[in-house]
Design a protein that fits this description.
There is one protein chain. The protein has 175 residues and is mainly beta. The chain has one domain (28-173): Galactose-binding domain-like (Jelly Rolls, Sandwich). Helices cover 13% and strands 50% of the residues. It is built from 1 helix and 11 strands; from the N terminus they run αβββββββββββ. The chain has one helix at 2-23, and strands at 29-40, 43-51, 56-70, 76-82, 87-92, 99-107, 120-121, 124-125, 129-131, 146-154, 161-173. Strands 1, 3, 6, 7, 8, 9 and 11 form a 7-stranded mixed sheet that branches. Strands 2-10-4-5 form a 4-stranded antiparallel sheet, with no helix packed on it. Strand 7 and strand 8 (124-125) form a beta hairpin.
Amino acid sequence: MRNKIYISMIVCIVVIVSLMLLSCGLFNTTTTYSGTGGSIISGINSFTIDISDKGAVYRILEVTLTNLNYANASDLMIRVEKVGDKRVTLVDQRGGTNAYAGTYVFVDDSNESGLSRLVTYSGVVVPETYQSEGDFNSFVDVETFGTWQLTILDWTAGTDGTLGSWSIKIEASGL
């Protein structure tokens, strides 16, 4: 009888410790999901990624815009969203008359306080890692499954550009 009680206690402890580790993110999986780009024209430009993995977002690590080319950075607002749920602005009409020309990585504004908002040099927004303007923590506990969308709003007619591709790196539980 005592052995059964000890075994039951050990099982309970293992379950409790497992749940604690899960809530701390130790059983999370990090996955990068990629989507295609396309033309950026005046108005709303949307690029989507359909994620079939089921899990809850623990945190968004980064959003990468590959081969973003656009002549006037301040014409654009760029945001990422889980369609039908949360939305976060990466950058909103910053960079002045400088051009986007390269790959840009946006990380959570609360995790990388040493990073700048946008750096320009010789007429170009320098391709590097920047803080997002919005807080990626908005996505905590959002279901990964479904459509994620990058929206580039071009506020000014007359200037077109391109986006080669984009990706979102998600750390999630339950995958």
